[in-house]
Amino acid sequence: MTKSRLAAVDVGNDSIKAIFGEMEYELNIPNIIARDTEDRPIIGIEELDSKDPLDGIHIRVHSPALKENNLIYRVGNLAAKSDNAAELDPGSSKSEEDQTLIMLFATLALDAVKQDFPQTKNVIDATYTIGTGLPLREVKEGKDAGYRSKLLGSVHQVEFLVTPKYQGIKVNIKFNEVKVYPEGFAAFINLVMDSNLKIINKDLIDKRILIQDIGGLSTDIAVIKNRNVDDDKAQGFNLGVSESLEAIREEIRKKHGVELDSRRDVVDIITRKNNRNHIMVRGSRTSVHDITDRILLDLAKKQYRLLRNVWLKNSQTEICYFVGGGSHVLKDYLKTLNNNLDGYNIEFFEDEKESIWMMANAYYKLITDFVRRTEKQKAAEVKTPVKN
Length: 388
Prior knowledge:
Residues 209-347 form the Alp7A-like C-terminal domain. By secondary structure, this protein is an alpha+beta fold. The chain has three domains: 5-181 and 360-379, 2-Layer Sandwich (Nucleotidyltransferase, domain 5); 185-240 and 299-358, ATPase, nucleotide binding domain (Nucleotidyltransferase, domain 5), CATH 3.30.420.40; 246-292, no CATH class. Helices cover 37% and strands 26% of the residues. The protein contains twelve helices and 18 strands. The protein has helices at residues 77-80, 98-112, 136-140, 143-151, 183-192, 202-205, 242-256, 263-271, 289-313, 325-340, 352-356, 358-383; strands at 5-11, 15-20, 25-30, 33-35, 57-62, 71-75, 119-120, 123-134, 156-160, 170-182, 209-214, 219-225, 228-229, 235-237, 278-281, 284-287, 319-323, 346-348. Strands 1, 2, 3, 4, 5, 6, 7, 8, 9 and 10 form a ten-stranded mixed beta sheet that branches.
């Protein structure tokens, strides 16, 4: 029987974060795709094998799960340089977009080529047990079941075309098991438990808490009490940071004539430690503080309103944790608003990596625990065979 490799994958709206195996391999790829042709030109073709594959992901994807099948894409950094680059649109459902699946399959294929899966000539047969998640709103609408069934029971193929090191390799991906978790629940698991699902935050475990997860396209507010997510009170909103990042990008283009490749470039300008909120215009360092402050403060006010409304309905809440990439972008604005207004007990993760990787880490903990319990159950069944 083919061994199934463990994968925890957070298909975030900004980037896809994945953890594989015994946590020995991680991938972080911008969530950007661009339709392409097979014969994309390469500058310095003889150097193809010396380049980083992550900077040249060029693939054909075949899967019955896709609405548009058997097409060719540039992915990640390579796609960001294209004129027709596509990022997920506000209002779209992560579970129903081809882009979510293309990013997922590409990421798994990039791991599979490094593993000891069965291989015939240039075709690798890879099997995965995967933990992933969807926004709370989509789970409450029952879209997790459809998403899971798209992945299970089919073979999904990624063919590397003009990709450094992997050109000509095909990866057939099958799923042994797919677990789809609500994002708010996953954030709670990550806050209170370690990698072995042992409780590490005893002070937090019995508190009434909110977790506001601000993503690119949506915001989830999980309501935790009695160590469980209250599904009735938890809420998902179609409000993320993508639209604001796009507005900043457009205004910079109009005012300064500078074309930024993607929303990720905008995030870098806003969050970097040196020369924050500055860009280069014709060789001169230029402030874009006026643009970023106005647009992000407006978004922070909307996010704060969501917090206030949910807190009012859950008045015995003790603390709200802000998580996700969007929280990192809005952190300073939300703190200022809170200090000047209601003064709620709110907490942010100062470590950017911890905040951004929170979901992937949570899915890893949950899928590892699922595999552990399944193996334990199978072992118990072998020891005590059913009597006739």
